[in-house]
Amino acid sequence: MSKPDFSIAILGAGPVGCALALMLARHAADPADILLVRGAPPAGRAAPSAPGITPPPASVIAPIPAPATAPLAAPAVPALPARPRAAAPEADVRVLAMNHGSRVLLESLGAWPRGTASIHTIHVSQRGRLGRTLIRDTDFDVPQLGAVTAYAALHAALMRQVEQAGITVRALPGARLAAQDADGVTLADADGDSLRCGVAVQSDGAGADDIRREYGQHAVLATVRAALPRDGWAFERFTREGPLALLPHPAAPDTYAVVWCCAPERAQALAALDQAAFSTALLEAFGDRLGMLACLAPRHVFPLFLSARRALVHGRTVAVGNAAQTLHPVAGQGLNLGLRDAARLAQSLASWLGRPAGAPTEALAAYTRARRGDRWLTAGLTDLMPRAFATGLAPLEHAGGLALLGLDLLQPLRAPLARHLLQGLRA
Ligand SMILES: Cc1cc2nc3c(=O)[nH]c(=O)nc-3n(C[C@H](O)[C@H](O)[C@H](O)COP(=O)(O)OP(=O)(O)OC[C@H]3O[C@@H](n4cnc5c(N)ncnc54)[C@H](O)[C@@H]3O)c2cc1C
Question: What distance in Å separates the CA atoms of residue 211 and residue 172, rounded to the nearest whole number?
Answer without folding.
Answer: 29
